[in-house]
Amino acid sequence: MRAVILLSGGLDSCVSATLAKDRCKDLFALSFVYGQKHKKEMESARKIGRYLKVKEHKFITIDPNLFSTSSLVNKDLSIEERNVDEIGRGIPSTYVPARNTIFLCYALAFAESRDADFIYIGVNALDYSGYPDCRPEYIKAFQKVADLGTKRGVEGRRIRIETPLIHMGKKEIVELGVKIKAPLHLTWSCYRGGKKACGRCDSCLLRLKGFWEAGYRDPLDYEHYPDWYDLEKLKPLDF
Amino acid sequence: MRAVILLSGGLDSCVSATLAKDRCKDLFALSFVYGQKHKKEMESARKIGRYLKVKEHKFITIDPNLFSTSSLVNKDLSIEERNVDEIGRGIPSTYVPARNTIFLCYALAFAESRDADFIYIGVNALDYSGYPDCRPEYIKAFQKVADLGTKRGVEGRRIRIETPLIHMGKKEIVELGVKIKAPLHLTWSCYRGGKKACGRCDSCLLRLKGFWEAGYRDPLDYEHYPDWYDLEKLKPLDF
């Protein structure tokens, strides 16, 4: 079997792709460059792709001007800092218009042209950052587009959108990643692109909370740790 | 009001965009370059955009390798010729994997970032070329993706996918185009990119049939006319 995997370079897509690797012989990876403020994510995506021995890895460049309302890509907007318990309330400024829809569309075209049976995407609806296009009902709607809008779908050989993490929190994702030996040390989640992860943005906070609750030490280095994260109490991971 | 218009350079998108112009003050045009065998379509799209005085016209380049199974973009495959009554039976080799899905996704991101209320796409399900992603149920499924997957949708200000031609045949589209004074003389439909339209491919045949049935002379020049198309019996159009 064959799968297209969406690789952002982050924790979730790394675990999701490792699951695809366990199920499918051939992987086809897709990563997107859309004017992110740093290149760390793409370096991580490339490393994860190599680690999983993908047959083909495409990097798609998308005109960032299309997304110019998002603070993730517009350098004139700053990324807000929130407490970890505020995350998920309301749609944050880092929201990128129709991002997952574009990712899934490309994955669909790629899957159909490579005759792949699955698309693996690491979205999750718990501990998510408030983006509308991470919800199960959204994925269900997209599956229908895939079924109705492709030759494979019409011929009854649907391309399945697989969202193995959708009902998991970050804690479960970390636990699963450790269990299936996903290359977590190669991932990057921080919205900023420093030498070390910042430890302050939404993405760092959610990730650290996941590692903390799972009882493992995050293999990445951080500039700052929130006061509830106590390195000494956590099991280190080997890679 | 504002609309994103998808401009392929063909007859249908020209008529659809002219309808958008009648309704909306500001138009934002999107056209796609995905390794088509010729540039005529894009030249036409640009001319139509200028004619309609769009505020912004984006040309999006999509890696043609993604679509490498389609005869429209793969130079090793030939475009089949069929009789006009065979068109619509089965999915032809010109099918491009998930094409409309990719177009609509970009339109969705563009619409959200420009705060547009509508997306105008010139798909039609009658006299269509057998593509699954031109059917009303497909568009309905995509509307749901738009409602669930965008900030505007979640906030109750949905971006509406407008498909004014979806239930029309080519005859009605030509009649409507003439009525609303759409710049039909600027369009290009032929799959091949000669100086004149070929008059033999699916797209030429459907178009000529539409003009023939509507009783108007197609303003384009053709290399070849099918024997049922009698120039002398048709009203000429003025532009």
Give a structural overview:
- The structure is a homodimer of 239-residue chains.
- The first copy, chain A, is α/β, with parallel strands linked by helices.
- Chain A has a single domain, classed as HUPs (Rossmann fold, 3-Layer(aba) Sandwich), CATH 3.40.50.
- Chain A has seven helices and five strands, in the order βαβαβαβααβαα.
- Chain A has helices spanning 11-23, 40-51, 99-113, 136-149, 151-154, 170-179, 202-214; strands spanning 2-6, 26-33, 56-61, 118-120, 160-162.
- A five-stranded parallel β-sheet of chain A has the order 3-2-1-4-5, with helices on both faces.
- In chain A, helix 1 packs across helix 6 and helix 6 packs across helix 7 (202-214).
- The longest helix of chain A has 15 residues, at 99-113.
- Chain A is globular, with a radius of gyration of 17 Å.
- The model of chain A has no long low-confidence stretch (mean pLDDT 87).
Quick summary:
Two copies of one chain form a homodimer. Chain A is of the alpha/beta class and 239 residues long.
Q: Write the H/E string of chain A, N to C.
A: EHEHEHEHHEHH
State the secondary-structure class of chain A.
alpha/beta
Average pLDDT level of chain A:
87
- Separation of termini of chain A? 28 Å
What is the CATH architecture assignment of chain A? 3-Layer(aba) Sandwich
CATH superfamily of chain A: HUPs
Number of strands of chain A: 5
Total domains of chain A, how many?
1
Rg of chain A (CA only): 17 Å
Q: Share of helix among residues of chain A?
A: 25-40%
